[in-house]
Amino acid sequence: MNLNCTFCKVIDNTIPVHKIHEDDTTLSFLDINPLALGHALVIPKVHKTLIHELAPEEISTLFKTTSYLTKKIHIITGTHATTIAINNGADSGQEVPHIHIHIIPRSRGDGGTPIHSLMPVRPKTNHEELKELASKILNS
Ligand code: 5GP
Ligand code: ZN
User: Fold this and answer.
1) Residues, Cβ < 5 Å to ion ligand 2
2) Alpha-carbon distance 36 to 90, whole Å?
3) Is residue 92's pLDDT more than 90?
């Protein structure tokens, strides 16, 4: 628990939210400033900022909840697609430093874009560079 953290305050019931799911380790609620109706956030009850700071079983529960809620949100909002995303760290645009998975309902022609449009310019690369990078990650 971090008393300066907005989502810890949500867990603590200090900040009211529209709750859509709760279990022992996760809490889910509607985003206060939704990108689409049904835009939801899934958070772990422990205060961690980055995804790999969670224990494997905590990650597992977080994604199980996300999958379960995504199906429900599709049904309730009548959509057949969602963008599921994590801003993982301040440099990626994370505003609340408590891990949260965004579930954003998507519809054909909604004017939104896929995550590939996140970066204005892609780096120039080649197979040699990608091979070396993959090898470093694989063997580290
Ligand atoms: P981030 O940029 O950190 O990935 O996204 C934070 C998200 O949390 C934003 O979409 C924002 O609208 C949402 N948010 C921030 N404060 C609150 C709050 O007090 N209540 C709710 N329900 N959502 C919040
Ligand atoms: Zn927190």
Assistant:
1) 2, 5, 7-8, 47, 98
2) 23
3) yes
Domain of residue 110, residue span: 6-139
Its pTM stands at 0.96
- Of 8, 33, 42, best ligand 1 pocket probe by most atoms within 8 Å of the beta carbon: 33
Using CA atoms, how far apart are residues 106 and 115, in angstroms rounded to an integer?
Answer: 12
Residue 42 domain-assigned (yes or no): yes
Angle CA 76–69–28, to nearest 5: 110
Let me know if residue 1 belongs to a domain. no
53-64 pLDDT, tens digit each? 999 999 999 999
CATH of the domain at 114: 3.30.428.10
The whole-chain average pLDDT of the chain stands at 97
